[in-house]
Amino acid sequence: MTQAKIGVIGGSGLYQMEGMTEVEEVRISTPFGDPSDVITLGKVAGVPMAFLPRHGRGHRLNPTEVPSRANIWALKSLGVEWVISVSAVGSLREDIAPRDLVIPDQLFDRTKSRVNSFFEGGVVVHCAFAEPFCPTLSGLLLESARELEGVTVHEGGTYVCMEGPFFSTKAESNIYRKLGMDVVGMTALPEAKLAREAELCYAVIACATDYDCWYESEESVSVDLVVANLSANVSHAQRILASVAQKIGTDRLQQACACEHALAGAIMTDPTRIPVEAKETYQLLIGRYIS
Ligand SMILES: CSC[C@H]1O[C@H](OP(=O)(O)O)[C@H](O)[C@@H]1O
Ligand SMILES: Nc1ncnc2[nH]cnc12
């Protein structure tokens, strides 16, 4: 099957990659069920890329329903090494205005109903997650975003991931602000954790669409407001993707990040005690550590 080293998970408003050529759609099944939709393989700026709309085409899956394990597994099985998430977020800071871009460097987990590891059934893995996003990929996103004229880009920031699908109460929004969070969204987790377990480089282009509901003099978040601000952001995100595709090196071993070796030393279970079925299931992720 065709392989791509770069995978893009499109969030709200991004359901297809404009300008992708040599397009081929692939339907993939995984040990964790089906991904959100078919994966589109093709080339962006001449570079092979795999594209998956997180909520499915037509936005059919709410944040809790997004099959993140299947999505990350499917991308890994296609040979993807770099995953770029494009995500709509609410701003928790006055200086992050709607339509600004943020490349977050931290995550805070406020989800409640999500499975956040691939590993179960006799395999126990504890990955480091102090730095939840790949610094190399985040750096490339930042560099490419800064090349866009007329776009304000913020370097770093904490993305608080809430469960949804409801938006926050004012009390929650204000508490997030007091705790020093910068943007709020519903989807970076467990995606970032699963990408780490799959030893993929993962980073987010967060597109601010609203001031959530804390800013008394501004309109509170609503689907209409998000959609109105997203269309401008989505075209910026697509230009960043084309630019980053050309910058990504062919050899991950030359990168400074440790994403490619995230499972080294993280598998607690004695390999001789891992059930045969689990060894088979997890071959794609841990085959090289347990054989
Ligand atoms: C349509 S607003 C709420 C929705 O948008 C964001 O999704 P994504 O991260 O996939 O762009 C947010 O996390 C919510 O799922
Ligand atoms: N205010 C908000 N809260 C959660 N997710 C969002 N996505 C876009 N805006 C959001």
UniProtKB/TrEMBL annotation:
Site (Important for substrate specificity) location in chain: 168, 223
One GO-annotated biological process of the protein: L-methionine salvage from methylthioadenosine
Broadest EC class assigned to this enzyme: transferase
Domain Nucleoside phosphorylase: 5-244
Reactions that this protein is recorded to catalyse: S-methyl-5'-thioadenosine + phosphate = 5-(methylsulfanyl)-alpha-D-ribose 1-phosphate + adenine
InterPro entries: MTAP, Nucleoside_phosphorylase_d, Nucleoside_phosphorylase_sf, Purine_phosphorylase-2_CS
Pathway(s) where this gene product acts: Amino-acid biosynthesis; L-methionine biosynthesis via salvage pathway; S-methyl-5-thio-alpha-D-ribose 1-phosphate from S-methyl-5'-thioadenosine (phosphorylase route): step 1/1
Chain sites annotated for binding phosphate: 12, 54-55, 87-88, 187
E.C. code: 2.4.2.28
Keywords: Glycosyltransferase, Purine salvage, Transferase
GO cellular component terms given for this protein: cytosol
Gene3D superfamilies, per the entry: Nucleoside phosphorylase domain
Highest taxon above the source species: Bacteria
Ligand binding (substrate): 186, 210-212
SUPFAM superfamilies listed in its UniProt record: Purine and uridine phosphorylases
A GO MF label: S-methyl-5-thioadenosine phosphorylase activity
PROSITE patterns from the UniProt entry: PNP_MTAP_2
Subunit: Homohexamer. Dimer of a homotrimer.
Role of this protein: Catalyzes the reversible phosphorylation of S-methyl-5'-thioadenosine (MTA) to adenine and 5-methylthioribose-1-phosphate. Involved in the breakdown of MTA, a major by-product of polyamine biosynthesis. Responsible for the first step in the methionine salvage pathway after MTA has been generated from S-adenosylmethionine. Has broad substrate specificity with 6-aminopurine nucleosides as preferred substrates.
Cited PANTHER family: S-METHYL-5'-THIOADENOSINE PHOSPHORYLASE
NCBIfam families named among the record's database cross-references: MTAP
Family under the similarity heading: Belongs to the PNP/MTAP phosphorylase family. MTAP subfamily.
HAMAP family: MTAP (MF_01963)
Protein name, entry field: S-methyl-5'-thioadenosine phosphorylase
